[in-house]
Amino acid sequence: MAAQEPVKRPRLSAWKVLAVLSLLVLLTPVWIAYGCLGALLTLPSRTIAKTGLHFLAVLGLWLLFQVFLTDVEGGTDDKWTKLALAGWLVALLLAQRKLDQLLVFHLSQKPEERRMDIVGSMLLATFAIGAASLWRPSIDNFEDLSKHYDVWEYVNELMVEALEGWRKELKFDKFYLGGHSMGAMFATSYAVKYPGHVEHLALISPAGVGHPPTSKKLPLGLRVFRSIWNLRLTPMSVARYAGPFGPRLLRFSTSVRVGVMPETSCIRRGLIPQDALAAYWYNNWALEKSGEIAMHSHLLPGVFAKRPLCEMLTPESIEIPITFIYGGGPDWMSSSHGEKVAKAFEGKQTVEVLLVPGAGHQLFMDNAPAFNELLLAALLRYGAEAVLLAAGVATEGRLWHWVPASYSKLEEAERKILTRAIPTPFEMKKVAQLGTVVVPCSDEKKRVNAKNLVLIHGFAGGNAVWAMNLEKLSQHFNVYAVEWIGVGRSDRPDFNFKDYDSANDFIVGSFENWQKEMKLEQFDLCGHSMGHLVLASPAGMPHPPPPPDPSTEEGKIANRSWLRRMVFSAWENGVTPMSLARFVGPYGPKLVHNVVHRRASFMSEGSAMRDGRVDLTELAEYIYHNWALKPSGERAMTTHLAPGAHAIRPLVDQLLPEKVKMPLTFIYGEYDWMDYRHGQGIVERFQEKNRAAELYRVPNGGHQMFLENPDDFSRILIESLDK
């Protein structure tokens, strides 16, 4: 290989060092508050409080230095730079300590405490010098790689050729090739270089598929992370630098990681002993560093690739089937990147994107049965001699389970509600990625010839909202309740659509796939599609009102309203009612519980939500888990609705006699906040053309009339469909 330029290191700028010093002095009250609070509430002594205080100060100093460092073209690192950095750290650290001593601890210090201060200062100074020593790259292996940034070609060739040598040794001709995380990057490189040996490429939560954002768009947190990344540290470095404390550190981090895994995790189920896994990770990570250099040769901060896979995965460069598999839960690899690649292959070859329900980045451990089923279903369509799975860099995932929502608890809550309400057999399953409840016609004599009725919930709902109606409806129909993509038990892909058409095509396309897989040729739809169309309290009927004239008093008040501006801004930025359930973290269940009970208190006394037919605690639990899981389908609110529930494309322009060929029925609640007069106008327009159209109002019902007065709602729906 040709000689490469040495690494260009960041240099300090004097004015930025002064800025850090000034900021440190300004932050002193914060550190003092931390120390006092620690001494009073959590820590056993002032000495420990001071230690925590100093440690936080050092950590803040180090991160501030990294954020304020500037890359200088042609600048190189030398020992004087390192000494200067160490000196600044020590000087600022001691200045910070002196301020703490004068302002907090001086009056009550005893001689032994002063001695502790001296020892503590020495230890902290040693820490500062050690931190400064990290200014150099921390790569010792791969010989010539330690002094270079751009070693992608060299490292990639080593990895690919090692895999090819392994294949020859095992005498495989063709095989399935699967790679996880970073392993997916090397698997892709191998498949591109040796396409004759790979029959199917499976990329499992792959890193580096999409293009990285530009530096100008990086948030502060990622700027800090990028600066630490430039030190050539890896997660494995922590295990080494911890020395004899490494095994204990890995046991602790493993216990934290297991605590936030879904209940379907093979570790939480006891199939893999937690201590054995921690020991394996430690001994794998703490050995001599070598292959982990690939983190820095191939990746940028934020797990973006220096050479994105989307540039390698093109119809011109690869002709084998490709399957992307992502976690359908908190997977920090975005499935949207895989979907963009799949779109580029449309009409040319097989590329699919699958989601493992409830799983994160370690999807093969988070939900092993579902992962195995999806992977085997994708691979067994093709023949091969062997399957090779290339592992990637492990991640600990989220460090704090702030939102206590899970797919398993959502499914459990839904099943509990349905079991209470439906005495006849029913089935909960997922079809074409959509959560589905099937209730066959309870009259076996009618079942074969019974009509199919498909129920689609509204915004913020799910299949469980139909629980009080399913038994009565199933006496006349084969009933299918189905959820939007990205809602309830449906898969929750990243919803990055910004315009109406792309979002609508995505949602409607998922229903079409569901209909094909269910093999329903004709059905009555309480929602949208073919057969008999029933719209229950539909949103987005009329045209939105024109904005107030800014020259009028009303317009001036509207323009000055901070609440109006805040609501519009939140709406445009995708903030939904579900966002609040996530934002409040562990307080979310209680918040939703209070909202549900408060909402029920405003309903009439004969309402099913007040007379005990609907268990409000069970309903609140279901609503919380439905709302607080990964945001996805709810994003359609901003593509389809404007603030005030006004449609971007009003239904009044879509529901025309010449466009809608099936019978049309509107159902509103008596106290519905959706104005029934908009539906009445459409019915009259249809009837003028001698087209079948009707409007009903459910007594003692509001917008959720199927929950508030399920008996009358079911009766009206059955009557309208039997006509």
Automatic annotation (TrEMBL):
InterPro entries: AB_hydrolase_1, AB_hydrolase_fold. GO terms for biological process: lipid homeostasis; phosphatidic acid biosynthetic process. GO terms for molecular function: carboxylic ester hydrolase activity; lysophosphatidic acid acyltransferase activity. Residues 160-367, 453-714 form the AB hydrolase-1 domain. Keywords: Membrane, Transmembrane, Transmembrane helix. Pfam families: Abhydrolase_1, Abhydrolase_6. The chain crosses the membrane at residues 17-40, 52-68, 116-135. Belongs to the peptidase S33 family. ABHD4/ABHD5 subfamily. This is AB hydrolase-1 domain-containing protein. It comes from Phytophthora sojae (strain P6497). The lineage of its organism: Eukaryota, Sar, Stramenopiles, Oomycota, Peronosporomycetes.
